[in-house]
Fold these 2 entries.
Entry 1:
Amino acid sequence: MNKNITVLPGDGIGPEIVAEAIKVLDKVAEKYGHKFEYTYVDIGGCSIDKFGVPITDEGMEKCKNSDSVLLGAVGGPKWDNCPPAIRPEKALLAVRKELGLFANLRPTKLFPQLADASPLKQEIVGNGIDLLIVRELTGGVYFGQRKTEEVNGELVATDIMPYSESEIERIGRVAFETAMKRGKRLASVDKANVLDTSRLWRKTMHKLSGEYPEVEYSDILVDNTAMQLIKNPTQFDVLVTENMFGDILSDEASMLTGSIGMMPSASLSSGTLGMYEPIHGSAPDIAGMNIANPLGTILSAAMMLRYSFDMAAEADAIERAVNEVLDESYRTGDIMQEGCKKVLCNEMGDLVAERI
Ligand code: IPM
Ligand code: MG
């Protein structure tokens, strides 16, 4: 198959980790007879420096016209004081919105080889963690109206959190379908004891659950979810939630494994176009040092093959290669353990590519 991939390396360690994912994709193409063509586009701080905006209109068009998008990371202290309209993160939100990437899949998996990295006790994570957060990505408070105005002599800020039934239903459907392909358990996370958006969320999810009798469905409040993720994370299979709750809970969940550098993500639209990125940030403190962990990005490339290109065998091959490299005790600095072999970012990419 021929596929056009828009590559957004971004800032900080973005370019280094993306280069390793491309190395692995090239190996997959060679091995399985595909042709992947890459179009590079600046995003985030590097684009602000060059063009004065976090992504150009042409860059956005290229993303829209490709088969899929691979992203490194955006942002860094250099751009922290940019005005809100041109902050690096703004580009990320714009790409999500313009490409209609409403469904964000964030798998949290404890690799048995890295079990010691989890900050939780063995009795809690001993049986492994394998949960998936389905986060709504183009609605809610991230995209509602916001303003800061002076009222009675002081500043008052407002962020509106709107959700429509159709927005809730379409993310709900993704969650139920995903649960059907996994452990058939779905927990819907909300704050229905306080928020109207959550009451509508719950009502809509209940309606949908009637269509998926095989899925064991439950409602759980977001504060309780935060607690349960630490207390008993193995109770969860798939979690579905709105944009901001999902942002917060997915960071919490990633820490259960102790290795945020390993975690991939997929942002999906109603078609096959998706954007794939590791969930960690741009790590400016180690940028350019060739010590970052590229596995989260490499595993994101695997998700791209699986979800956007329907190449399950190829995705399996990448995931298997990552497991082999870990079994053989190769580790980047962030996941280094006693008795293991410490490797650089580019060496990790080579090791995975060699095993495809
Ligand atoms: C994420 C990030 C983004 C978000 C930021 C960078 C805007 O934290 O992808 O989780 O809040 O969605
Ligand atoms: Mg986040």
Entry 2:
Amino acid sequence: MPPIFLHNTLGNKKEEFIPIKQGEVSMYNCGPTVYDFAHIGNFRTFILSDILRRVFEYNGYKVDGVMNITDVDDKTIKRSVVEGISLKSLTHKYEELFFSDLEALNIIKPQKTPKATESIADMISLIEKMLENGTAYKSSDGVYFDIAKSPGYGTLAHLNLENSTKERVANDEYDKTNPRDFSLWKFYTKDDENVCYEAPFGKGRPGWHIECSAMSMKNLAETIDIHTGGIDLIFPHHTNEIAQSEAVTGKTFVHYWIHGGFITIDGKKMSKSLGNIFTLQTLKGKKIDPIAYRYFVLGTHYRSMLNFTWEAVGGAQVAWKKIKSFVSKTYDQQESRLVSKSIIYKLSEYKEKFSKHINNDLDTSQSLAVVFEILKDSKLPDHYKQELILDFDKVLGLKLDEKEEEKIIPENIKILIKERDTARNGKNFAKSDEIRKEIELQGFEVKDGPEGTVITPR
Ligand code: AMP
Ligand code: ZN
């Protein structure tokens, strides 16, 4: 297998990736907190984990991927109380919306997407172990991790512990300049409404950080290859995950920590709290295809900050469509039945070049430059260009072979079309009318063509 280099936040340098098990990669992606729509900043980080997975698979690795769904924490509980609905119905709704946005961005769903609420017993067991070995202690409002008991606490974030104060912090997302004992378990208060779990150390609910430690160890292993997230997760979230996991197992929690830069607006991090967010729906409303956004993201190295503007994403859409319109055509393969030596050489040279860039800390912008170089190559017959670019698209995920008419029709609508055609063929016109209405409700015009239902977006 060719070498893959990744920038590891632990150690803050680019390193060759050496897997725990030869040919295999265990990878945990910190997933969304499902209390609202995810914004396009969040999706930049999820595109990063998707590219990482695709690069490993392109190189012949088997990837075992996990992305958690945070469906119980301070934010989800607060929102369910404000909306007056149960935590479960709130989080279920946003989880479904999240998965359909992943699909729109052509992000391959990780093999496992566990919910925090399904692993409460595992979190309790980790906390019990920390109470037993003295790295955690009980206070009046919950169980806390004692950072003084964690040798090397804060190495990931290069923290200066002189700033730490000997006090506790109950909030999961605390002041980044002030490392403190953090919450593992929060005892029940009436603000939690009916969200609480029985535990030997007292009724309550988990803190956010322990959720990821438990789900990573349960679904993968005590030590894994890769853990990903945006740079805002380095401290406190990932720092605390390391401390508590290693306090329980005595083993290294993760070998490679990969962190992505922010999407910014006017140089400021896109975030719900600043109110400067756009969702995929906002993009679609402005006729920007989610895949054009993916292309925009791939144009910049994942560790750099990326400032979002409508102009830049519009430019990305034009460039993406240019490649796509070339690649999705059908080319005459006869024209080049006789493969010359120079073509064989060119093909392997381009492939090597692409691999070199993508294996060099996921340099997607240089990899895209190779695609343009191929397009401009007047000596390479079109169908060879097409084959090469489609091969690269296994990594880029830009849906380059998708025809225009296939593109706009979502999976659920395709199923309805099939059902309608079956109903019509069986002369069940009542049912076919019912399905027509359902398709129309979802924003498509329905016509009857000679080969069955034909739809167009309104
Ligand atoms: P959250 O749902 O807030 O836990 O965030 C989900 C993921 O999105 C985390 O990995 C964050 O680090 C990441 N994230 C949050 N804001 C941004 C942003 N503006 N740009 C890139 N990634 C972000
Ligand atoms: Zn996490």
